[in-house]
Write a structure and sequence with these properties.
The protein has 13 helices and 28 strands. With 538 residues, it is of the alpha/beta class. The chain folds into three domains: 206 residues, FAD/NAD(P)-binding domain (3-Layer(bba) Sandwich), CATH 3.50.50; 129 residues, 3-Layer(bba) Sandwich (FAD/NAD(P)-binding domain), CATH 3.50.50.60; 160 residues, no CATH class. The strands form seven sheets. Strands 1, 2, 3, 4, 5, 6 and 19 form a seven-stranded mixed β-sheet that branches. The radius of gyration is 24 Å and the shape is globular.
Length: 538
């Protein structure tokens, strides 16, 4: 006899689990099938803190969000079946699932497809060599299995995935020799690019890989500059010694099941490729079949979770578990949350556009887009960068991104974003900072520093977010690096703070000569800094 459920969900990632929780909490019998041996989708690879606001689980690391969702799903009575590959979806809402060596058939009164997306690849001579991997694969190796993907790595792609994974590679003790992108501008959040740049990793925009070297595995890579038609320019080759090439060149929705079921589809480059045609809440052309998360258009995990909840609410009303009024009330709140995430410079409507000014009318940093860091002659134009007596926050957040944990984190009101979540943060002039460090630790982009420009005699102090091991110790003398990753001056560690409330973001305070207070933005040991400089000049 075929087993029946109110809701069958395919995919136990952020959107699938969120949909399951919402549906189960309203009394529905829910099953989630996932082909992996662990639930959570990409969340357990995401060790960085999320953007957004409290409603979007901002400043919480993806791995912790995954744990929260699994706990909520368990408490709601959701049945999660793992190592279960859905191989068929049919118009009458039947699914075929391969579990072990057998095919099982299930019937759903409603279906939610939350299969996510797959990594894109690019081809070049040598691209099939061992050592050419996707950024997602690198994350799996590092963050799920504790294995370094390689020792010396070149990253292709400067979208958020390429930037975030590059930083995580550095955290895992790998050497990232360069970030490369054929596009003329950095594609991801500037704060992600900045935190990679200040460690000393160079960016090569308008460049692409022209060859991977090696016989049995990658031993090197050649990149070349490209013209406005993305064709390699003769004589512009640059060679790097690497053992791994990491590709972060976009994602494609895994929409095959929806196509198989007969849902109306479209090729939509803005949504990532072949996607189902859906209404505003994710319902496809087949009544009772919904799509949520990246399968219906590539966005951040925060958006996927809200889309999942919306689908859960819709199936509840579809099956009579809530009234239309109850559905509309819930959806109105979720729509507002989703809309707030779709604002700012990285909103879907702005994809592919070159924005010259922020929403406040401040010129965008050209250096950030071209080199991965804000130049010294640009940084002072932003409202979070101020000079005042005593310790105060310096907020180097220069793009309109939907994020506001820093405003909530400060107990003294030193930071203001205002009512609009994409406003640039302001360092409040007449506030009194108590040097608690909560703003530094809460910033998902690691873009806040506590600066005392006159800490006595001829030195200043700078408190930095620090997420590397081993931690420096008080009294250590190393090198302060600038926003561009180049040596600024010698720096002495005067304090290292680690608290549970900081959630693994350590606060390292360094003393530097006064004139470098607004330049020193990272700390390295002398040995590491010397090695990076040697590589940079090789």
């Amino acid at each position: 006899m075929m087993k029946r459920y109110d809701v069958i969900i395919v995919g136990a990632g952020p959107s699938g689990l969120s949909a399951a929780i919402e549906a189960a909490q309203m009394g529905m019998k829910v099953v989630v099938f996932d082909e992996n041996e662990k639930p959570g989708g990409q969340l357990f690879k995401q060790i960085h803190k999320f953007f957004g606001s409290k409603e979007h689980r901002a400043k919480i690391r993806g791995i912790n969000i995954g744990t929260q969702l699994l706990k909520e799903a368990d408490e709601a009575g959701v049945e999660v079946v793992l190592n279960a590959t859905v191989v068929g979806l049919y118009q009458d809402k039947e699914v075929s699932v391969r579990i072990a060596d057998a095919i099982h058939h299930y019937k759903g009164d409603t279906i939610i497809i939350a299969t996510g997306a797959a990594e894109n690849m690019v081809t070049f001579p040598g691209w099939t060599l061992p050592g050419v991997i996707g950024a997602g694969a690198a994350q799996t190796m590092m963050n799920l299995h504790g294995i370094q993907p390689g020792k010396k790595i070149l990253m292709l792609g400067t979208g958020n995935v390429g930037l975030v994974v590059s930083f995580q590679l550095l955290q895992a003790g790998c050497e990232v020799v360069a970030l490369v992108d054929a596009a003329p501008r950095v594609g991801g959040y500037g704060v992600h690019a900045s935190k990679v740049s200040r460690t000393g990793v160079p960016f090569y925009l308008s460049h692409t890989i022209t060859k991977a070297h090696g016989e049995d595995q990658v031993t090197g890579v050649t990149i070349s500059e490209v013209d406005e038609h993305f064709q390699p320019i003769e004589g512009s080759d640059k060679y790097f010694d690497v053992d791994t090439i990491c590709l972060a060149v976009g994602l494609s929705p895994m929409s095959q099941l929806l196509k198989m079921a007969g849902c109306k589809m479209e090729d939509n480059p803005k949504r990532g490729g072949q996607v189902p045609i859906v209404d505003e809440y994710g319902e496809t052309s087949i009544s009772g079949v919904f799509a949520a998360g990246d399968v219906s258009g590539i966005e951040e995990a925060s958006s996927a979770m809200i889309e999942g909840r919306m689908a859960g609410v819709c199936v509840a009303e579809y099956l009579g578990y809530c009234t239309k009024e109850e559905k509309d009330t819930k959806l109105a709140k979720l729509e507002d949350d989703l809309e707030s995430l779709r604002q700012g410079m990285f909103a879907p409507k702005n994809r592919g556009k070159k924005l010259d000014k922020t929403e406040e009318g401040i010129p965008v940093s050209d250096s950030l887009l071209l080199n991965g860091y804000v130049a010294e002659d640009e940084i002072e134009r932003y409202p979070g960068v101020i000079h005042k007596v005593g310790v105060h926050p310096v907020i180097e957040c220069t793009q309109n991104i939907p994020c506001n944990p820093c405003q909530d984190a400060c107990p003294k009101g030193c930071i203001s974003i205002g009512d609009h979540i994409t406003n640039l943060p302001i360092s409040v002039e007449d506030s009194t900072c108590i040097n608690c460090g909560m703003c530094v630790a809460s910033c998902s982009g690691q873009a806040i520093f506590l600066v005392d420009e006159d800490a006595g005699e001829d030195y200043a102090t700078v408190t930095l977010p620090y997420e590397f091991l081993p931690l420096p110790k008080e009294g250590d003398v190393g090198i302060a690096l600038g926003r561009n990753g180049k040596m600024v001056c010698e720096a002495e560690v005067v304090s290292v703070k680690s608290m549970k409330a900081f959630d693994h973001t350590n606060l390292v305070t360094i003393a530097v000569p006064k004139k470098y207070a607004m330049k020193a933005r990272f700390y390295q040991t002398k040995e590491v800094a010397a090695h990076r400089q040697k590589v940079a000049h090789a």
